[in-house]
Amino acid sequence: PQGGRKHPQQEFIQIDTTNILFIVGGAFDGIEGIVKSRLGDKTIGFGTNSDEAAEVDPKNIMQAVIPEDLLKFGLIPEFIGR
Known about the structure:
InterPro entries: ATP-dep_Clp_protease_ClpX, ATPase_AAA_core, P-loop_NTPase. One of its GO terms (molecular function) is ATP binding. It comes from Lentilactobacillus parabuchneri. By secondary structure, the protein is mainly alpha-helical. The protein has helices spanning 31-39, 50-55, 67-73, 77-80. Helix 1 (31-39) crosses helix 3 (67-73).
């Protein structure tokens, strides 16, 4: 088949992914705490942002993840940028 929008004349290459490890295919256990901390959830003091924290439903906390959260979680910038 033909290529995508950037290179329409280029051919696609099929790759067997059987033996490829996908590094970021996990559940990101613990990142919820980083997001909640950033949003001000359960924070006492002047640094709280209760409006932003109130907007995020606890069931959808992963939708509030931003690149800075992934950096604090421990991912390297090269993965975050992709």
